[in-house]
Amino acid sequence: MIEMQSFSVSFGAGEALREASFVITPGDRLGVVGESGSGKTMLGLSLMGMAPDAAKLSGKLRIDGRDMSGASERDWQALRARKVAMIFQEPMAALNPLRRVGETLCEPLRQHLGLSRSAARARAFELFEEVGIPDPEARLEQFPHQLSGGQRQRVLIALALACDPELLIADEPTTALDANVALRITDLLVRLAKHRNMALIFVSHDLAAVARATAEIMVMYGGEIVERGPTRAVLDAPAHPYTRGLLEARPSPQSKARGPDGKRPRLTTIPGVVPQLHDLPAGCRFSGRCPVELPVCAAVRAPVCAVAADRTAACHALVSEGGA
Amino acid sequence: MTYYLARRMLSFALTLFAVSIVVFAAMNVLPGDPALTILGLDATEDALAALREQLGLNAPLVTRYFLWVGHALTGDFGVSHSFGVPVSELIGERLPLTVSLALSGIVLTVVLALALGVGAAANHGKAGDWGVMFLSQIGIAIPAFWLSMLLVILFAVKLRWFPPGGFPGWGEPLDAMRSLVLPTVALALVQSAVLARVTRSSVLEVMRQDYVRTARATGFSHRRVLWLHVLPNALVPIVTIVGMQFAALVTGTIVIENVFYLPGLGRLIFQSISNRDLPTVQALVMLFAAIVVTANFVVDLVYVLIDPRLKSRA
Hints:
The complex is a heterodimer.
Chain A: E1 2-11, E2 14-24, E3 29-33, H1 40-47, E4 56-63, E5 66-67, H2 73-79, E6 84-87, H3 101-111, H4 117-130, H5 136-140, H6 149-161, E7 167-171, H7 179-196, E8 199-203, H8 207-213, E9 216-221, E10 224-230, H9 231-236, H10 241-248, E11 304-308, E12 311-314, H11 316-323
Parallel strand pairs in A: 3-8, 3-9, 6-7, 7-8
Antiparallel strand pairs in A: 1-2, 1-4, 4-5, 9-10, 10-12, 11-12
Chain B: H1 2-29, H2 34-39, H3 45-55, H4 61-73, H5 87-122, H6 127-141, H7 144-158, H8 173-207, H9 210-217, H10 222-259, H11 265-274, H12 278-306, H13 308-313
Helix pairs in contact in B: 1-12, 5-6, 5-8, 5-10, 6-8, 7-8, 7-10, 8-10, 9-10, 10-11, 10-12, 11-12
Domain ABC transporter (chain A): 2-247
GO molecular function (chain A): ATP binding; ATP hydrolysis activity
Organism (chain A): Antarcticimicrobium sediminis
């Protein structure tokens, strides 16, 4: 079980992650969505103990009952790959170009699990089969540049699974891939998580992929978790104005229809841009771009409100609605 | 791969051919008459003409070039004017010393530079990094001959750990090696200062790559990531510089052998230039050029060993 409590990551005065709290247990599949700069990746890196050296961390982080806030690099090395593993956005650049992928995969098996050369080899073969790489024997002998993007991402997934982690963090695992390859990788991650009873954090800005892959969702903006709940419920009826904005900014089949003037309607966008780390608003991070902004929003942090039994959103507008 | 090799070999051969033409032409347009040098200013015109005939200096230039190359290919570089023995014999006697000096120099350069450069990159922005950068800046600024003199004063004159110069011959291997220590250090320190900087920046560059983050995320220690994942990827620019430095070390032996009174090729080329000993100078310049071109050829082969992507592209 992994538990974050009021966990913040800051660079000087700027908070890249602000008091994040959540719990994830085996079998959970949690989606994390938000624009670039919303703190999604920082959340993932923090769970690996890989936040940049310049970052100041505060709050609680417990992994398997161990308090990892303030843990040393050596403590983290013992957890990475074995308890928490992560795959990254760019499969093209994430594999050592000088090594055969078989060598890359055997390294943690031999180093961390102490397998012999032949046992590691056999295990690597099984892992390649598990992640759906055809002809594993031949593939193990190849170099990354000889594989396609989808196959490289599968190799990286196999590498992340090598030491049977309890949690797999997939940071934009499909962003760099073709649409149909992306779909298959998404389904593979879901199948692996279910089959291994492993927790999955699926970080993406692709709402369709998150809807397909996860049971629960966290929407992040400006380093803050603004809304969370069951994926289906949140995407069907978003409570936070930012989540609504994200959903409206998606192209839908209807938007293809031409208007009376013969032109296609423009896609709705959220006005403005994500503010830089050092000039985030002090109150609600979304103030300044929010369509339902109240006078209180810019200065005071929005309280976390229960929208339903299993859903929360952090928004002042929800409080005044509830009070009225 | 075969195509790549064939192309490298061809360029290797063409370079040597071009070098031979330049060397031959340079030696023959130089002012000064070898016959006059050998016989002295008092020689009669008849004697000079006879000697020119004997040395083959009256044949057309092209004929003389092909005669020279033809003989050189069979290992015959003619007879030294000043020593009166075959040039190949002169070279044979001195080659082992210069080769040992250059090889030990390049090994020391690489070992020092990798240790310092990787160490500096691993401590990027900290005291160790600044220390290495400062020392290497000094190392780059110091001329090798002056460094040699400082080394002699400290380790030979004051501490008496090593001889100040001279060479006892290979008959006494231990003393021979002892007398090569200071020259090796003098050659390597300056070169390793340059190489340490190249190593540091190349390692820093690779440390930013995604696959290094993957290796860290797989739970490997900093040391393992640095030496097994980062360094191999940082090697291509390092190997390029090492190839160039080997050339610099070989030519650097000319100065160092003169400072330390070592009977090697560097000292021989210096003496034969002073004596206007054309066959010897030609052979030596050609030999030095061949060593440099060979070093570059080896570097081209090493690239392919390091990076499998080159193999399939080549």
